[in-house]
């Protein structure tokens, strides 16, 4: 599975609809301080099911909605869409019937988040499952926040083990076992 497109609308500083085409290979995002580089990575994490406002550098999840500036009013919702190329059919069962998978998360003030996968309503859990084995997802060690390296060095052994398990690709297994135990 490969990310091919990231679309943002009203997410943090990306108030106007923004459509990023992600091509194979290395992508660099450059720009001055405060231009929104970290916001882009946060959008990626958020659409994959991140539920901790602190991971979005906010106090509450609605803080991801464009808050307004002196010249523009605040928005009432934020939406991020992530398109995955699934031509090699590596997506987990239940998502694997199409060449392309589009995940959309939208948050509306006072109404919380809603997810859609290929235009069908989905739960946060479904979206997290979609990414659980792909060495990606909201908590993926492949996404390194600013300051995270310093945190890793000072982490307690248990927290460090979780990171290693993610990196080894076995956390999807745990997530599914946990899911099975709840059923
Ligand atoms: P640096 O190079 O310093 O790491 P950066 O390019 O990573 O900068 P970001 O941290 O992504 O920049 O962007 C910060 C900007 O996003 C700030 O100007 C902040 O005001 C703006 N921002 C964050 N949340 C919102 C929001 N909800 N509404 C409007 N603007 C927001
Ligand atoms: Mg940054």
UniProtKB/TrEMBL annotation:
Compartment annotation: Cytoplasm
Domain of life, per lineage: Bacteria
Record: residues binding ATP: 32-39
Domain notes: Contains large globular domains required for ATP hydrolysis at each terminus and a third globular domain forming a flexible hinge near the middle of the molecule. These domains are separated by coiled-coil structures.
Subunit (UniProt): Homodimer.
Role according to the record: Required for chromosome condensation and partitioning.
Family per record: Belongs to the SMC family.
Protein name: Chromosome partition protein Smc
Organism: Falsirhodobacter algicola
Gene responsible for this protein: smc
